[in-house]
Amino acid sequence: QVRLVESGGGSVQAGGSLRLSCAASGKTYVVGCMAWFRQAPGKEREGVASITTGGGHTDYVDPVKGRFTISRDTAENTAYLQMNSLKPEDTAMYYCAAGVLCSLNAKSFAYWGQGIQVTVSS
After folding, report:
1. Angle at the Cα of 29 (from 25 to 34), degrees rounded to 5?
2. What pLDDT does residue 99 have?
3. Distance (Å, rounded) from C-alpha 23 to C-alpha 76?
4. pLDDT for res 29
5. To which H or E segment does residue 20 belong?
6. What is the pLDDT of residue 103?
7. Measured between alpha carbons, how far apart are the two ends of the chain, in Å?
8. Does residue 112 contact residue 22 with C-beta atoms inside 8 Å?
9. How far is CA 112 from CA 36, 51, 106, 108, 121, in A?
10. Pairing of strands 10-13, 2-7
11. Contact 35, 97 (CB under 8 A)
12. How confident is the prediction along the chain (122 residues), in pLDDT tens digits per residue?
């Protein structure tokens, strides 16, 4: 009932920037939160950032604070993740998620995008 499509990934040198986009469609009125998760090979999925769709309240995992910014365009039902000062340890598959309430726990989210690769080289 909610479809999420990510775009904007790719490869970048350490210190560079990327912006990920997540476009939601379908029954978007059920979505109270959009979030970004990432998963590197051999590691568990990690919540990166979340934002409430109504009030714009944000939360971040400690390793990205000060470098990443999550935002949303309510009119376009789109969430963004601006990633600056990228580090090799940011390399992962990044997933957009949507649900009713915000957290950085993957179990809180009912809808997921297909994932998009971000690679940061040193």
Report:
1. 70
2. 97
3. 8
4. 93
5. strand 18-26
6. 96
7. 40
8. no
9. 10, 15, 10, 11, 27
10. unpaired
11. yes
12. 999 999 999 999 999 999 999 999 999 999 999 999 999 999 999 999 999 999 999 999 999 999 999 999 999 999 999 999 999 999 999 999 999 999 999 999 999 999 999 999 99
Q: Counting every residue, how long is the chain?
A: 122
Rounded Cα gap, residues 83 and 117, in angstroms: 13
Bridge partners (DSSP) of residue 23 are 5, 78
According to DSSP, residue 8 is labeled: -
The whole-angstrom separation of Cα 57 and Cα 94 is 21
Distances (CA, A) of 62 to 8, 26, 49: 23, 32, 10
DSSP H or E segment with residue 116: strand 116-121
| DSSP codes of every residue in 36-90 | EEEE-TTS--EEEEEEETTT--EEE-GGGTTTEEEEEEGGGTEEEEEE-S--GGG
Q: Tokens representing 56?
A: 């714009």
